[in-house]
TrEMBL record:
It is found in: Mitochondrion inner membrane. The keyword Transcription regulation does not apply. It catalyses: 3-sulfino-L-alanine(out) + L-aspartate(in) = 3-sulfino-L-alanine(in) + L-aspartate(out); L-aspartate(in) + L-glutamate(out) + H(+)(out) = L-aspartate(out) + L-glutamate(in) + H(+)(in); 3-sulfino-L-alanine(out) + L-glutamate(in) + H(+)(in) = 3-sulfino-L-alanine(in) + L-glutamate(out) + H(+)(out). Homodimer (via N-terminus). Solcar repeats lie at residues 170-262, 270-354, 362-450. GO terms for biological process: malate-aspartate shuttle. One of its GO terms (molecular function) is L-glutamate transmembrane transporter activity. InterPro entries: EF-hand-dom_pair, EF_hand_dom, MCP, MCP_dom_sf, MCP_transmembrane, Mito_Solute_Carrier. Belongs to the mitochondrial carrier (TC 2.A.29) family. Its main location: mitochondrion. The keyword Metal-binding applies. This is EF-hand domain-containing protein.
């Protein structure tokens, strides 16, 4: 307020003729001298062009006040825009739409809206305002807005060219670590479901093996594992799974973010085809880690079905298979993981955007829901490929059908067991994959918030800027602004402020009848 009063006094000094106006150059000098911290490079460049509107080169006192009020209210301007655009960054609104939305708040005058659209048209005449225009006009000082737009713009425009190789490597290690921990938490949380899914998919229904139908359904399988192998039988093969989850999740998240970053448009959006491409690349890149991990895990999971014979360990499985044997069924793994990620990541991105609040943030509960919902179609649609991969990677026992490659496996399953066999374990797969990815991503999000490190680059997905605000915006009440709650906070203790020592009066107690 003192700065505003200083600016008003400067206006009065320049208005020597007492006409209530100053020249455009005087207006620019006042703003640059008195309020430079509120001027972005764009606004400073356009001060003369914007002076007095598009019809005059004289700046009236009302326009001067409106211009300064607009700069002070840019955080509220952004909030009004958010009520219209939601979580999208590419929406442009008309002046009429903006004025109607601003009426809910009551703190923005029509003149301020006119100046806002006038400044936006100086950049590109189109009669609309988007988030890019607001960021171009908004003061960039730390804490000047609830969302630190200077930090967002620095990340989007700086790129890797302004950062050293050491910083980029440190950022990759940081993401790798968070992805590893999040992946391990997600895998452990749903591992019993994964074990049941594997045993159901490996169960033949062609009658080629005596007593092959050990389990009636997934629930029956779960009960029998606990009964005959104990509670920890549900976690058979967990250790190699955790050892492989770290690089698998890290490379999947890294490749997806990398491709999305390379295909991102200027407005911050990613086209749908680019999202599918990024997900497919992420799924394909993870197979180098996933396939050895899966084949060892699967053989350990089904080993518990046979109680006789030597104990099977991860090292014994690796020795028996050899290096090339660890990549048995890799084609089926590609056939499963590429479509899965191509479906999952776009679904997750759009579901997460739909669940964002009016400030563009997603809470842990909504993030978990977004991950779970996106996993349902992705997990169910690739179940046939998962069944083929499981059959190829499991060690066939005496009397069981053997398969010679992906095509041979497909035709034998179709001929001997019918089309329904390709959907075995679909329920368990959806029941496992949906919560697993939900838990993984919510863990990843929370780790980024708890152990945040700024490397000066693009923030990992889900790491929203910390809200910073100088004021507490009142709730949009159509009847009044602020209300008694804000009035009490404003005048609390005023009797002893500013060197005053006034007596305090208390309302007399109402006498009881």
């Amino acid at each position: 307020e003192m700065q505003l009063e200083h600016a008003r006094q400067a206006f009065a000094q320049r208005d020597k003729a007492r006409t209530g106006t100053v020249t455009a150059l005087d207006f620019r000098d006042i703003m640059v001298t008195i309020r430079p911290h509120m001027l972005t490079p764009f606004v400073e460049e356009c001060l003369v062009a914007a002076a007095g509107g598009s019809t005059s080169h004289q700046v009236s006192f009302s326009y001067f006040n409106g211009f300064n009020s607009l700069l002070n209210n840019m955080e509220l301007i952004r909030k009004i825009y958010t009520t219209l655009a939601g979580s999208r960054r590419d929406v442009e609104v008309t002046k009429e739409e903006f004025i109607i939305a601003a009426q809910r708040f009551g703190q923005v005058t029509p003149m301020e809206v006119d100046i806002l659209f006038q400044l936006a048209d100086l950049s590109e005449p189109r009669g609309r305002v988007g988030l890019v225009d607001i960021e171009r006009i908004a003061p960039l000082q730390e804490g000047a807005l609830p969302y630190n737009l200077a930090e967002i713009q620095r990340q989007q425009s700086g790129g890797d060219a302004s950062r050293s190789v050491l910083i980029q490597v440190a950022e990759s290690a940081y993401r790798f670590t968070l992805g590893s921990v999040a992946g391990a938490v997600g895998a452990t949380a749903v591992y019993p479901i994964d074990l049941v899914k594997t045993r159901m998919q490996n169960q033949r229904s062609s009658g080629s093996f005596v007593d092959e139908l050990m389990y009636k359904n997934s629930i029956d399988c779960f009960k029998k594992v606990v009964r005959y192998e104990g509670f920890f039988g549900l976690y058979r093969g967990l250790v190699p799974q955790l050892l492989g989850v770290a690089p698998e999740k890290a490379i999947k998240l890294t490749v997806n973010d990398f491709v999305r970053g390379k295909t991102m448009q200027k407005d911050g959006s990613v086209p749908l085809h680019a999202e599918i491409l990024a997900g497919g690349c992420a799924g394909g890149s993870q197979v180098i880690f996933t396939n050895p991990l899966e084949i060892v895990k699967i053989r350990l999971q089904v080993a518990g079905e046979i109680t006789t014979g030597p104990r099977v360990s991860a090292l014994s499985v690796i020795r028996d298979l050899g290096f090339f044997g660890l990549y048995k069924g890799a084609k089926a793994c590609f056939l499963r993981d590429i479509p899965f990620s191509a479906i999952y990541f776009p679904c997750y991105a759009h579901t997460k955007a739909a669940l964002t609040d009016e400030d563009g943030r997603v809470g842990p509960g909504r993030l978990l829901l977004a991950g779970a919902l996106a996993g349902m179609p992705a997990a169910s649609l690739v179940t046939p490929a998962d069944v083929i991969k499981t059959r190829l990677q499991v060690a066939a026992r005496a009397g069981q059908t053997t398969y010679n490659g992906l095509i041979d496996c497909f035709w034998k399953i179709l001929r001997e067991e019918g089309p329904r066999a390709f959907w075995k374990g679909a329920g368990a797969r959806v029941f496992r994959s949906s919560p697993q990815f939900g838990v993984t991503l919510v863990t990843y999000e929370l780790l980024q918030r708890w152990f945040y490190v700024d490397f000066g680059g693009q923030k990992p997905a889900g790491a929203e800027p910390t809200p910073k605000s100088r004021i507490s915006l009142p709730a949009p009440n159509p009847d009044h602004i602020g209300g008694f709650r804000l009035a009490v906070a404003t005048f609390a203790g005023i009797e002893s402020k500013f060197g005053l020592h006034l007596p305090r009066f208390r309302a007399p107690a109402t006498p009881h009848a």
